[in-house]
Amino acid sequence: MVSAEDFAFVLFSLVYMYFISKVAFPTTSAFREAPVFGEKNRVLGLYVFVAAIIGLFLPIAYIFEGIFEGDKEGIKAAAPHLFLLASQVFMEGVAFSDRFSLPIRVFVPVFYNSRRIFSLVEWLRAEIGKVEEQHSGGMRRLYVGRTLAMVNMALWCFNLFGFLLPVYLPRAFKKYYSELKDKDQKLK
After folding, report:
1. 176: burial class by Cβ within 10 Å (0-12, 13-18, 19+)?
2. Is 153 in contact with 120 (CB distance < 8 Å)?
3. pTM, whole model, 2 decimals?
4. How many CA atoms lie within 13 A of 96 on its CB side?
5. CB contact at 8 A, 55 and 159
6. Within 10 Å of residue 5's Cβ, how many Cβ atoms?
7. Contact 80, 119 (CB under 8 A)
8. Structure confidence by residue, pLDDT tens digits, 36-95
9. Using CA atoms, how far apart are residues 18 and 141, in angstroms rounded to an integer?
10. Residues 6+ apart with CB under 8 A from 175
11. What does pLDDT average to over the chain?
12. Distance from chain centroid for Cα 102
């Protein structure tokens, strides 16, 4: 269900994260950097909550229902997205340790969202390609699968192109480089 390429992607991301943390984006201080948007941003908290429901919990429910309904095609199509999202959550936990700088923390969601869009395209293609008469699940499951794949595609495309790249990434780099500049000025 999950391809060797997806496993290789996760392993590569771990190695690459460590590499760029040493070569390109070392930590600016021994202290933990403050988050870009603050700890108590309610809008961001709500956004993450909704994304977790749409991107994580509903696909898990879809896969479990597919097990009971015998929809192997639906499970096979949704599993890579879920695997990559769970891997992203794990890697964000690793990146948010004190050992990594702010650009590395930004790298993980941007990198995984970029890859996951391709798995969502495949999921959407598999769901749209199902023929009603040959589908092993019911008609309701067919439409739920298609809707869930489309909603996830819209959510994660917005997340990447409407939030991570135009908002989060510039703010994180501004904060990182201003702290780096302050550190350099203190050393002079």
Report:
1. buried
2. yes
3. 0.90
4. 10
5. no
6. 13
7. yes
8. 887 788 999 999 999 999 999 999 999 999 999 888 888 999 999 999 999 999 999 999
9. 42
10. 33, 36, 102
11. 90
12. 17
